[in-house]
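Protein modeling request. Please complete all fields; requests missing the sequence field cannot be processed.
Requester role: graduate student
Desired output: 3D structure, token encoding
Chains: 1
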Amino acid sequence: MNALSDFIGTRAPAGDIEASHWQGGPVDCSACEYAALRDRPAEQGCEPGHACMQDVYARRIDRFFRWHPEQGDRQLGHPYFEVRAIAARHANVFRLASLMDDPDETVRLQIALRLPQQLLGRMAHDPHREVRIRVAQRLETAELAAMRNDTDYGVREWVARRLPLALLPTMARDPDRAVRLIVAQRLEMPALLILLSDKSPEVRRTVAERLPAPLLPRLIADTDWRVRWEVAQRADPSLLDPLREDDDPLVRQCVLERQDTRQALSLVPGVPHG
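Delivered output (274 residues):
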């Protein structure tokens, strides 16, 4: 058996890159610990150029482990990071702790996706943001509070999405607008009032969308027309006189239409108005 003859008659899906050993050069089945698998049929074996653990291409490595998931535990220490990462998808979850500090973030990403909850919190300070995002997506909500001050806004966004409501007000002053927007979408009254004076118009508009109607006049003089428009859409028409001469034509139009409709309904017998 030699490296060239191994490729005769093998198949590779259209679009796949040329087969190559992960250390460079051709794939040599004679030097592979799984060489005996070549004699087995179809998915019971392996196939250079299609399903091969020696290959540099992650897709072919993945096919090998999907055919032989029982090999996941054995390859967690493989020198090629792609092999370790893909083996981690199939290995026993109780074997994954050994890779929590793997030097490659691709491997640690896979670990964060499968690690048992009792160990997952230990990865909350991983140096790579994508790993910490995976942790924030999976960590039990009671443990998320420890990640509220993560240095990356993407991590904090996920914390804001999943943090228990009782703790969410502590993120209302987050430095990032996108995080505060999520907070505004979830906070309930009276905690929502914390964001009435937020520096971001998008956040204040979200508050205006969710604030109880009787409290909307608190935003009637907001500096952003989009916030005032929300007020004009939802507040009692009798309270909208200050916006009849608003600088923005859309706000003025909304106020006039709502007040005209209210006036018209008040003239119809038996139709309540308010």
